[in-house]
Amino acid sequence: MKSSARGGLIGYARVSTEEQTTEAQEIELRAAGCDLIIHEHGSGASRARPALAKLLKDIGAGETLVVVRLDCLARSVTHLLEVIEQLADKGAHFRSLRDPIDTSTPQGMFSLQVLGAVAQLERALISERTKAGIQAAKAKGKLPGNPAIRERRPDALASMTAAQKAAYGKRIQTTAHQWLPTVRRMRPDHTWDDIARVLRQRGQDWTPERLRRAIKWLVSEHMADVALLKRSPPRPPEDRLMTLVAGISASNPDLSLRDIATQLERLHERTPRGGRKWSPSSVKNLLDRAKKIGLLETAFRV
Questions:
Q1: Is the bond preceding residue 144 a cis peptide, omega within 30 degrees?
Q2: Does the active-site annotation cover 76?
Q3: The pTM is what?
């Protein structure tokens, strides 16, 4: 990430799902003077923020990270303070357009100190309430937690396991529309690691192990094809790149060749010749091969 000049304004726009758009935030950020805007799709509660992480890594001294609202950036006051601390370590600033926070001004720093005090007080109150509750329970001869679980009664353990499985299944079904289409396009040609990296690039918090477990659950419930669990065949490096590029293009046909090249660089994929820098022509060559063998039917943009 390179801004036009040191001391510049860098916008950060985030929405929760792929169906939403950052257009409204972008309009406000550009009106505020941001020439460079970083976009991210991901739940506000998720810790997977690859675009934000790269922004915080690359931002320079004197530059300012700008958001429309605080909730576009942080999951909580604690998370907000962590981000601002990282910016301060780099000599950078933070500004929220709709909140009285601008760390380059005395008034903004005062507002930030108030938020920090509130966060500290909140943590202290929660800790005190928890300790008081435990002490009160012990005074009455009670131990925290479910007695049946502590005694490891089979019926209680079975009920707990069933409840956990039901909750897990509900989470998988609720989010499947966000990631299952990508899995179906890429499996079994690609490894679970490849697919997890593509999903993380889109702001979805997946590891290969969790992704495989989710698919196993869907297969067990007859909601996904068992072929998704087949072992990925060994492939020459260029063949693997071809199917990876085809999978990226098929999952989002609106991506240009340059967009795909940028994603491959963010995934730290080497070019067929072993380089780190991808060109649109290299992407096009791989897409042409994929189209020729029937792996990709969708037309792509230059």
A1: no
A2: no
A3: 0.41
